Amino acid sequence: MLSSIALRHFAEVARCGSLRLASDRLFVAGSAISRQLALLEEEFGLPLFERGRGKTSMRLTPAGEVLMNLVRKLEAEEENTRAAMHALKHPQREVIRMGVPESQTQEFMPIFLTDFRRRHPEVDFDVRLATSTRLMELLREDELDVALVFNALMLPGVRAVYERPLKTCLLVAHDHPLAQRAKVRLEDCAGYPMALPDASLDLMRVNDETFVRAGIRPDRALVSNSYELLRSTCAAGMAVAVLSEPLSHRAAEERALRYLPLVDARPRTFGAFLKQGRLLTPTACTFVDELVGVLREVEAEPAPAPAARRSRKGNKPL
C-alpha cells in the first residue's frame, strides 16, 4: 500500500510546482520530501517530475499525472467519508441534489419527493432541471447525487442504477382522428400540425434524426423548449408531437392524452445514474434505493387499452 505521507508530500509538490514552496507549506524539510518522492519513483520505476531550475521547476510527468489523479480520487473519497461519518454522529439537515428533465416534474416525482420527506423530515431537496446531456455533465462534476436521464450518452465515470427502454410515440388528444389506433407509422402523422422541441432540448436532435430516416418534413405548428407546453398543446388538439412514452401511463390517461407507438421509430431509453466511485451518505443511498424501487413499480404498470372515442365537449363516449 502506498504511504499516505509520501502521497501527501507528492501532491503538495505537484500543486506548488516547487520543492521549496511545498516544504514551506508542509513545515517539513525539503530533504525529507525528496526522500518520499524518491521512494514513490522507486516504487513505480518511473520519474514523477521533470526537474528544472527556479521556484516553479517541478512539473508532473505522464506518470506523475496518473498518480495525481489517484490522489484527487482519494481526497474526494476521504471528504465524502468524513461527511458521512459526521452525519451519523451529528444528525442534521441534509440536502439531496437531484437532476431531472423538465418532462418529469409533472409525473411521479412530486409524489415521491413528498412521501420521502414525510418519512425523512431532516432531508431537503435541491432539484435541477436541465437537458439530459447537461445533467450527465453535472453528475460527473459532483454537482448532483443522482440524475434521471433520457437517451443517455454514457460517459466515463458514470454508472446506471436503473434503465428501461421506452417506445417512441405519437402524442395526440383523446379525440384526435388517430387516437383509436393501437399503433401508427410516421407517415400517418405527416399531414397533421406538429409541436416540436427547440434546439435547446436534446429531443430536437433525436426527433430530427427520426424524421430524416422516415423522409418526413414535419408541419411545424409550434416550437418550444417546454415539454409541458408540447403536451398541453397536444391535449388541446392544436398539434401532435413525437415523444417517448410516459413513465406512467396513468398520468396520460388523467390528462386525456394518447401515446400511440410509432412502429417505424427507434425506441428510446430512460435511466437513473450515479457518479462512479462517489460515496453517498446513508440517507442519500436510501433515497436512491427507494427511487429505483418506485421506477420499477411504475414500469410494471400495465399500458392502457384503447378507450372508446370521447366527444370534446361532454367527455362522453360517442
β-strand amount: 15-25%
Name of the top-level CATH class of the largest domain: Alpha Beta
- Roughly how much helix do the residues carry, as a percent range? 40-55%
Taking all Cα atoms into account, the compactness measure Rg is 27 Å
Biggest sheet character: 5 strands, mixed
Number of strands: 12
Mean pLDDT: 85
Give the second-level CATH assignment, the architecture of the largest domain.
Answer: 3-Layer(aba) Sandwich
List the helices and strands and how they pair.
Elements lengths: L3 H13 L2 H8 L3 H15 L4 E3 L6 E3 L1 H28 L4 E7 L8 H11 L3 E7 L2 H9 L5 E5 L7 E9 L1 E6 L19 E5 L4 H13 L4 E6 L2 H9 L5 E4 L4 H6 L2 E5 L6 E8 L6 H18 L19
Parallel strand pairs: 3-4, 3-5, 8-9
Antiparallel strand pairs: 1-2, 5-12, 6-12, 7-10, 7-11
Quickly describe the structure:
This protein has 318 residues and is of the alpha/beta class.
Write up what this structure looks like.
It is a single chain. The chain has ten helices and twelve strands. It has 318 residues and is of the alpha/beta class. It has three domains: 85 residues, Arc Repressor Mutant, subunit A (Orthogonal Bundle); 105 residues, D-Maltodextrin-Binding Protein, domain 2, CATH 3.40.190.10; 99 residues, D-Maltodextrin-Binding Protein, domain 2 (3-Layer(aba) Sandwich), CATH 3.40.190. It has a five-stranded mixed β-sheet with strand order 4-3-5-12-6, sandwiched between helices. The chain has a three-stranded antiparallel β-sheet with strand order 10-7-11. Helix 5 links the parallel strand 3 and strand 4. Helix 1 packs across helix 3. The termini are far apart.
